[in-house]
Structures are given as structure tokens and as C-alpha cells.
Amino acid sequence: xxxxxxxxxxxxxxxxxxxxxxxxxxxxxxxxxxxxxxxxxxxxxxxxxxxxxxxxxxxxxxxxxxxxxxxxxxxxxxxxxxxxxxxxxxxxxxxxxxxxxxxxxxxxxxxxxxxxxxxxxxxxxxxxxxxxxxxxxxxxxxxxxxxxxxxxxxxxxxxxxxxxxxxxxxxxxxxxxxxxxxxxxxxxxxxxxxxxxxxxxxxxxxxxxxxxxxxxxxxxxxxxxxxxxxxxxxxxxxxxxxxxxxxxxxxxxxxxxxxxxxxxxxxxxxxxxxxxxxxxxxxxxxxxxxxxxxxxxxxxxxxxxxxxxxxxxxxxxxxxxxxxxxxxxxxxxxxxxxxxxxxxxxxxxxxxxxxxxxxxxxxxxxxxxxxxxxxxxxxxxxxxxxxxxxxxxxxxxxxxxxxxxxxxxxxxxxxxxxxxxxxxxxxxxx
Length: 430
Prior knowledge:
- The protein has 16 helices and twelve strands.
- With 430 residues, the protein is of the alpha+beta class.
- The strands form three sheets. Strands 1-2-3-4-5-6-7-8 form an eight-stranded antiparallel β-barrel. It has a two-stranded antiparallel ribbon with strand order 9-10.
- Helix 2 crosses helix 5.
């Protein structure tokens, strides 16, 4: 099966075999690989010399997912949003037949507001918002001049077609998702005013609509943008539908509750961080109070670079490669390098450098998994061997960290170095 999606990631072509093994391409040279089953994908991406993890779900033609840099497990930072534009062959013909019955109507205008406010939620529309709007939009059944509109009436034809049409109208500008959603939102609002003036919509229906929007925004705590935009619409309509003044009070109260909950969560998080920092500072008194794993990991990398008292361009290149390919820890280490380097030199001037090396080795052993430690020692080994000669001080450095992390592996590494034609000085007398 071949699927084609368009969204903030560009165009994604995804090929899935009968076992769920999936490979795809996106943007210019981007590659996906993983497992796609029952609408859920989980796997890896490679793009522009970087890699990372990605996961997404496809429901009713809408793709929602998250991604991160680096292959190490951790919180997903970015968002993938898009829509299915090319269905598998067995469903394409059916959809094509249905499109003629899917002209824009009042249901599309109403759904524009559901889509817009759902996307203003924290981190965008998630599963809880998607389920809510699917349920709510099916409740809308309206008759205009003897013509019935609503999903139960087949106008729009189905939810997929409705969601696609509205998403395109709100966010798509050609192949880009950079369209200002207020262009369509203003038009839909104008249409609703017209329906109200014609008697198609009444105050009871308007109140139901905006009450539903408040419930949507409350699902995961109302955001500032949701409150700001929703309050504006409520104020506009309250001049003709007095019951909406009550909804404004409900909205404001919901915002106050959300702010209080957010403040409490922030305080709890700050307390947890402070507690962790105090614990670490007691265990590792040499570490500056704000040091995390991204700072500590700099210690062995830096030591491998400077231990022979020569810093060359190849070592700098390997260091940069480490930053780019050690996931989020590597990225943060690159940003923290300069200030951490200054702090290390201060510790060294205090005569505590040896203790720092010991503490860093123990800390990294306790805070990195074996795969991460293996990758780290690989970079360290490449740095000390870049000139084809491992000096005695470099050998001692490797031995020290190998003893801490992989006590039985050093001999194997040394034999590989020698087999590759490198000189390894294992004694100060050599």
C-alpha cells in the first residue's frame, strides 16, 4: 500500500508492506522507516545529516504526530500535522465518487471554528480534542430551504471529506500550511451572521455552539489564545443573544482555574528540580549547581582532546560530529561547551581536576544507558586516535574510562587499533 500525506513536513510518500514494515520519503531527501499498523506509525527519520524518532497516528484522513532529534528515548519536541491526500487504490475510487456531493455549506462553517479552537490548545489538537469535535459536529443537523445539512444527511458526505475541506480552507496555501486561518474564519463568521439574519440559526443554536467551544477549550486547560479569541466571538454575539453573557463568565472562570492549575504545576516542577539539584550537589560537590548530563559529558570529550596538549582541526571536527549525533544531550552540550569549559578550567586551577574526572565517570555511568556509553567511548577513542598514534596519556585516559564503564573491552579496542596500523603507547617508557 502506498499513502501520500501533505502537511507541515511537506509531502510524505509512505509505502507499507503486508507485515506493516514502512518506508517513506519526505521533504528533500528525508527518509522514514518503521512500523505502520492500524493507523499508527512508529519509527525513525533521517534528514540533512541528522536523525531522530517520529510517531504519528492517522484517523479520518488526518495525520497527527510528534518527533525529536536523536535516537535516544525522551520527550518529543516537534509536531507533525497533515492530511491524507492519496488513499490506497481500493478507497480512492469511492472517495472520488463522493466529492461531487461535498460542496461547502453551513456545516463546514461551523466545523471551521471547531478545528481552529482545537488547534489553539496546548501543543495543538490532540486525540482528546479530535474525539470531541468528531462527536460534536455529528450533532449538527440544519435544514435550509428544504435541503438538509449534516453528516447524518450525507452533506458533507463524510467526516474525512469535511475535515479535509476545512483544513485546506484554514491552513493550506498551495503546498504550504502557512495560510492565515483568519482569512477563512472571517468568511465563516460572516456566513454565520448571514444565516442568523435569515433565521436559519437562532440564539439557542448560537449559544449551543459557543458553549460547545468552551467545553472544547477546557479539555486540557484553556490557553491564553483560546480565551482571547473565544471571548471576542462571545462579545460579538452577546449583543444579539443575551444568554451569551453567562457564557463569558463561564469562560473567564475556566481561564482562572487553568491559570491556577498551571501555577501549581510550575511550583511543583520547580520544587522537584530544586530537590534534584540539591541531591546531586551533595553527591557531586565539585559540579556547579546547574550542571546536568549535557555538562558532565563534556568532561571526558574535552579531556580526550587536550590530554596530549595538542588541539587540531580533526579533533574539533569529531567534537562537532558528537554534538550533532548524540541526540538532545549532544545538542545541549554544544550550546553549553564554552561556559562548561570555563568552569572546568576553574576546577582545574583549584587542584580538583582528577576528582572531577572520577566524579564525571561515575555520574555518566549512572545517568547514561549502555548504548549511550558505548557511543560516547567510541567518540573518545576516535579523538585520541585521529593522528594514528595513541600517546601514553591518551592510553591512560581511555583505560580510566573503560575501567569505569566497560572493564573487559579495552584490550579488544587496542587490538583493533593495532590491526588498523596505529601505534599504541601503553607505557611511559616506550
